[in-house]
Amino acid sequence: MFNILRAEDQQRAANRTLRFEGQALGGPVSFFLVDAEPGQGSMLHVHPYSETWIVRSGEAEFTVGGETTRGHAGDIVVAAPDVPHRFENVGEGRLELVCIHPNERIVQRNL
Questions:
Q1: CB of 79 closer than 8 Å to CB of 13
Q2: Domain-embedded: residue 10
Q3: pTM for this entry
Q4: How many independent structural domains does the chain possess?
Q5: Is residue 18 a contact partner of residue 33, using CB atoms and an 8 Å limit?
Q6: Mind listing the pLDDT tens digit for each residue in 67-95?
Q7: 33 to 19, 47, 56, 65: CA distances (angstroms)
Q8: How large a percentage of the chain has pLDDT more than 70?
Q9: Which DSSP string do the residues of 26-48 spell out, in sequence order?
Q10: 59/45 Cα distance (integer angstroms)
Q11: Are 22 and 106 in contact, with CB atoms under 8 Å apart?
Q12: Residue 28 placed within a domain
């Protein structure tokens, strides 16, 4: 058995980001599909689980704890649980990023 969320039924935020929570379709994983303009990103936040980012295109700066790093297309970055983190599009074009949450719903506390 399977469940499917068709593209035409997906609702994106004004910034073109799609938030998907696995519990809606009986899955154990949630994610954000980010499509961000230069300068856009997330606010500083934490999760009780690790977060994995996959950079699909563009350039992002990731801040995890007190450290920063840059990610480019094809890079994978992982933030440990309960460590404050954020990302920002620091490139000249759009940033496409997958933010994977290994939980049936997104649990996030903004700082």
A1: no
A2: no
A3: 0.93
A4: 1
A5: yes
A6: 999 999 999 999 999 999 999 999 999 99
A7: 7, 17, 10, 23
A8: 100
A9: T-S-EEEEEEE-TT-BPPSEE-S
A10: 20
A11: no
A12: yes
